Structure formats: structure tokens, C-alpha cells
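Aim 2 progress update. The chain analyzed this quarter is reproduced below.
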Amino acid sequence: MIKRGKNALFEIVNQTKAWEGTIRLVAEKAGSLKSLSEGIEEVVFTGCGSALNVAWVLAPTFQYYTGIKARAVPSADCVFFPDTIFTTGSPTLVVPISRSGDTTETVEACKSAHARGMKTLSITCNLESQLARMSTESLVLEPASEKAVVTTQSVTSMVLCGQMIAAIVSKNGELIDQLKSLPAIGQTIIEKSHALGREIGENESIVKFAFVGNGPYLGVAKECQLKIKEMVVLPSDSYPVLDFRHGPKSNVDEQMLVTVLMSDSAREAEIAFIKDMKALNGVLLVLCEKANSEVVGIADYLVEVHSGLPEFVRPILYLPVVQFLSYYRSLLQGQDPDSPRNLTYYVALEGAMGN
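Predicted C-alpha cells:
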């Protein structure tokens, strides 16, 4: 009998190998990436589902390191609302992101960009895909390809890919060295967070989930939310940290896991938020670089990554524990983490784009 979710678990546990392959692949393309980005004044990262969450991480990261304006937008908006996305007269690089490279909306977004004379740089895991063939330049992360329907190692690898692009475009050797350290650090985190992720996932008193983060961590929060919705099929939300007080906190009680993805820039505000959520009896999972004694005393569950890395480099280190908890809760719920209900490996639409 084939074990449910065996592919997803393998891909979570072994994802740092995909990270190593991603770093090598992007480094080999450094020359063409520099040429492609020359004279660019704006970058649009676009995708659907997990790929859009990757874009939410990469846009602020790219702008922070390069000084080039960057945005994250849904692929469909590039098709249906192009005048709100693409700026006339501003040299723009469009970065379509898709694991399969064949997601209909993202392929159409790439065509929309080309129709306006814009360059495209696709990030995908499929060499034979439409995006890989049609983009001005493509980064094909074959080491990050997956058998499971749910995205795990492909997401973290595509984030790392975008971070490497930012490092190359900004000619930031220190950043490249920091990114090269992620696989070793990530493996340690995977090993120490596996049991904790399982413990949280098998806590049946938790039936609601919320994930909050600021800056690049908002995209990570959105991806965590999606993993719960896809794999666990329980209520899950994601918000910027402070926005959670504007209504969503009404759902907080002893049955809700509130996961706080801590940054450096908003640290004090995030600590105040953690105190507020504990006062509402929320169950707290805190993901951070290093917790102070106050956070240690409040958090029900805590993952400290101890990476020594800047906040814009660390985002993928926060994902493994949530991937594990989603995996184990999925099994507990009777789901198959490899193939959640109603989902396919990628979304192909026939005639639904209006063209």
C-alpha cells in the first residue's frame, strides 16, 4: 500500500538540496541576468497561488537590494487590467512565476507583457513549459520540481532564485554569500522543526489558523495560509501584523493558532502584538531570528532560526515548520497531502481568459 503524502514529505525534508541546485543554476546565468536588467526602471513579479505568494516575498526584497521599483501582482490582472500594471514609457522587466510553467493566467500575462514590448524573465521548474520557451530569458529550477500537487520545495527554491537575481543585479557579493549559506542553515532548521511541526499539526484542539507578517514576511504568511487551506482544509487567514487588530482578531480564542513571522524592522510592534494575542487566549507560534525572554515566556510554540542573516534573506527559513504541521494535520484530517481534493498539478483554463 502506498503511503499517503510520501512525496510531499520527501520534498519538505529534502528541499535544501533543491536550494543548492537553485543557487548554482542562477549563478551560472549571472551574465545574461545583468544584461537583461540593464536600463530597467521597474520590475513586475507575477503569478498565481503559491507563485503569487513568491512574488509577494520577492517584490519588496528586490526593491530593497536594487533600488529598482518592484511590484507583485496577480497574473490575471496583467491580462484583464494591463493599464493598471504596465507603465508606458518606463522600461519594465516582467517576471512570470509558475512551477509548471503552463499556468494559463501566467502564460497569458507573459504574452501581455510581450505585446507591450517588455522583456520577460520566467521562473519555473519545467524546461518543456510554455513559459520557458516563450520568455526573453528563463530560469528553470529542475532540481526543485515536485511529484506532489502541493508546492513546498518549489516555493522556497523560487524565492531563493529571486533573491539571487536581486543579488546579481545589485552586484552584491555579500548577499550572494549570505544566500549560499541558506542550505546548511535550512537543513538544521528542518531537522529541529520536524517534531515540533508534527506536534502542532496533531494538536486537535486547534481548528483555526492565522498567519501574520510584514514586508517580505507577508508573502510567507500568505503561503502558510494557502498550505493550511490546500492540505488541511480548515479555516486559515493571513494579514499584515497590525492589520490583524482591525477585525480579524475577533476570531481569536483557544482554538486558533496565531503564527507570527517576526522581522527586525517591526520587532517591537510584533512583540506588542504577541502580547495582545495571548491576552485573547490565542495559541501562539512565533517564528523569529532570536527571541527575547519576554517572547520565550509568552509563545506556546517557538522556532528560532539563529541564522545571523538579515531579515530579507531569512524568509524561506520560516516555512518548513508550517509545511510539517500542514502535512501532519492533513493526515490527521484524512486528506492526502500529495493530492488534496479538488486540486490539480497546475491550472489550465480553456476559453476562460476571453481570448
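The radius of gyration is 19 Å. Residues 185-332 form a domain with the Rossmann fold fold (CATH 3.40.50.10490). These observations will guide the mutagenesis experiments scheduled for the next reporting period.
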